[in-house]
Amino acid sequence: MLTLTGKLLNLRALEPEDLDFxxxxxxxxxxxxxxATQTPYSRFLIKQYLENAHQDIYExxxxxxxxxxxxxxxxxxxxxxxxxxxxxxxGIGLLIAKSENRYKGFGKEALQLVCxxxxxxxxxxxxxxxxxxxxxxxxKLFENLGFQQIGVKRDWNFVNGKFKNELFYQKLS
Length: 173
Description:
Blueprint: E1 3-5, E2 9-13, H1 19-26, H2 32-35, H3 43-51, H4 57-60, E3 63-69, E4 74-84, E5 89-96, H5 106-121, E6 126-132, H6 136-144, E7 148-159, E8 162-172
Helix pairs in contact: 1-3
């Protein structure tokens, strides 16, 4: 089982015990804009997802890790997606579930750990992120870790009756 260890938190593979946590996140309409979700997920579907979460990133083209504090509190999720070994790139996204856990360094450390993992173990040349133009906290986080904005996807997402831009960030190894 994959575990990445930092000073503030550990990143670990999904476990069956994460069902309620994943269910709550996937069904939180306030973050659907970030995850491109449009409909609720049933416990049954999430249970099936967790049963298949053991798939290798080379097979599934994605990897979801749980962020766990040193006090064993589940903090959030960090995902690698659109893994493309031929072109040596992977997308990254993260979510801190509770607002009281934000701005404490968890996101920064998780992002550092996963980028290091991607460069060292997956042999990628670049990690990229898609960030909503209004998500100032994520923009600051990614820029502080060396990601550069390389593009703007104009009117990319239609949210609550209006189009929103999405920024494309990239970090090369």
